[in-house]
Amino acid sequence: MNKDNSDDEIYNTLQNNNPEDSMIDEYDLYYGENAVPDNEVKVKISGPLSRRPSLKSVMPALFFSILFIIFTYTLSNNSFTDYLWASHDAIFIKHEYWRILTAVFTHSDGMHLLSNMPFFIIFGFILYDYFGFILFPVISLITGVAANIITLWFYPGNIKLVGASGMIYGMVSLWLVLYIFHDTDHTMTRRIFRATGFTLIVLFPETYNPSTSYLAHAAGFIIGILSALIILPYTMYRNKKTSAS
Q1: Distances (CA, A) of 163 to 113, 138, 172, 196, 209
Q2: What CA–CA distance (Å, rounded) separates 145 from 214?
Q3: Cβ atoms of residues 216 and 151 within 8 Å
Q4: How high is the mean pLDDT of the chain?
Q5: Can you state the percent helix, strand and coil of the chain, rounding each to 5?
Q6: How far is Cα 241 from Cα 243, in angstroms, rounded to an integer?
Q7: 7, burial (CB in 10 Å: exposed 0-12, middle 13-18, buried 19+)
Q8: What is the pLDDT of residues 186-231, one digit of tens each?
Q9: Which end of the chain is more exposed for a tag (fewer CB within 10 A), N or C?
Q10: C-beta atoms surrounding 218 within 10 Å
C-alpha cells in the first residue's frame, strides 16, 4: 500500500471522528428540540388501592353485624337454640342443611361475638369498597359456609359448631391475596413481606383455647386463598373517587 494513501485515510478518519461533532450530537440530545425540559415533572400513576375507602362502604358489614347480634341473642332463647348450631350428625346424617348457614351467624355468647366483630367489620368494609358486592358478602359468605362444611366433616358427630371465624379468616386471606396483586404502589417483595408478617403476627394464636375451632380458622384461611386465586383474573377493583364523609 502507498504510504501517502495510508496517511490520507488516517487523516480522513480523524476528520470524521472530530470531537466537536460528538459534542454537537450530545448537545442536541440533551438540549435540542426533542429534549425533555428540566422543569417537566413526571407524574406517577397511583395504584388502585391508593385511594381512601369511603365510609359509606361500611354499611354492608354493619348490616351483617346486626344479623350476627340477632342470631346470637336468639341462641340464648331456649325455644330456638336447637335450630341454629351445626354438627356433623345434623348436617351429614339428618340433612338439616340450613344449619350450615345459621351456624355462621350465631355465636356462643357476647364475648365470642365481640371477639369476631373488629376483623369482620374492617375486612368486610375494605373488600366491599375496593372490590364490590361479589367479594363481600357473596364470596366471603360462601367461604364461611365451605369452611363449616369441611370442619364438621372431620369433627365427631356430637360436637356443635357456631361462629363466623371461618368466614372471617377467609375474608382476611381473600384480602391479602388481592392486596399482593393489586397494591402496585409498592414492590412485590414488600407486599409479600407485609402480608406474611400480618399473617404470622395477627392470625396465629398465642395461646390454646379448647373451645376455639382452629380447624375452622385454617379451613377458612385456605379456602379464602384458593377462592382469591380462582377469581383473580375476573376481579375488577372499584375505581371511584372518595366522597366526603
Answers
A1: 8, 17, 16, 25, 15
A2: 15
A3: yes
A4: 84
A5: 65, 0, 35
A6: 6
A7: exposed
A8: 999 999 999 999 999 999 888 888 889 999 999 999 999 999 999 9
A9: N
A10: 16
The three cell numbers of residue 96 are 338439616
Cell of 187: 414492590
Q: 136, 225, 122: which is closest to 176 by C-alpha? A: 225
Core vs surface per residue 59-85: b (16+ CB within 10 A) or e? ebbeebbeebeebbebbeeeeeeeebb
Q: Which residue has the cell 348450631?
A: 85
- Does the model's pTM come out above 0.90? no
DSSP 8-state class, residue 57:
G
On the question of pLDDT at 40 being above 90, the answer is no
Residues pairing with 86 in the sheet: 161
Nearest one of 221, 223, 219, 239 to 231, comparing CA atoms: 223
* Three-state secondary-structure class, residue 213: coil
The span from the CA of 132 to the CA of 82, in Å, is 35
Minimal CA–CA distance to 144: which of 174, 115, 118? 174
Q: Report the candidate in 47, 25, 30, 17 with the shortest Cα–Cα distance to residue 185.
A: 47
Tell me the C-alpha distance between 13 and 62, whole Å: 81
Instruction: State how far Cα 223 lies from the chain centre.
Output: 13
Residue 114 pLDDT = 95
**134: helix, coil or strand?**
helix
